[in-house]
Amino acid sequence: MAESIAVVASYRTELIDYILKAPTPPTTLIICASRESFLQNLQKDVQRAHSVSLPSDENSDNPAPHRLLIPTIHLLAATRSIRLAFTPTLPHLRAYLATFESTSETDTHSASHQSRAFGGTVLVILGLVALHHSTSEYSAQGLSRSIAVAVEAAHSAGMKLIVAELRKEYGNEDSMAHNEIVNGTPHDPWNEQIPLLNGSTRSGNEERVWAGRTITIGRVVGRWCKFEALDADQ
To answer: pTM of the entire structure?
Structure first.
């Protein structure tokens, strides 16, 4: 059985850099957001990364574009081995994963050859945890159900599973929001507390907490996945 890992990225560009590392195996990237929302926020990430990389004494009127916007031979070749899917709701995600084995069988002979050459194919799901946040299934019960479906889909297709989350800031209209700094350190989604069961409610006024027993997201995800750090530059 192929391994399953969980990673956290500060920005979408960081995860894409991680996926595009040479050599790039045949990869299915499931994005838990609408296509429009993802592209808008990806553009913001590219602009942010580009502005940070520019020197303070920049004199050029036409600075070099972000590396993801430069059509290098490697980038063009890598994108041919990546298949995108957008699942903006939990029903969309679970329905896609439920039929994933049959859709993966439509891969071309070339892709199958690449799979053997690179030691397997990869299934990446971006924002699986965040997709639960505004639903009644934002709980250990709901997350376990979705991750189990993802693990089973990857196993049936013989693929390595990567569950990826963004360091999120709630209140943003996008479920996979940008980096949040808490007490001088980036927010770690794995440390967030969630209730054990679906449909749990919060209690309190200013500091609202879950009523009943809770568990960290990391403990739920850790039942299925091994945690790893991204080693790609932003």
So the answer is: 0.79
110-155 pLDDT, tens digit each = 445 444 444 579 999 999 999 998 899 999 999 999 999 999 999 9
CA–CA distance, 121 with 75 (Å, rounded to integer):
18
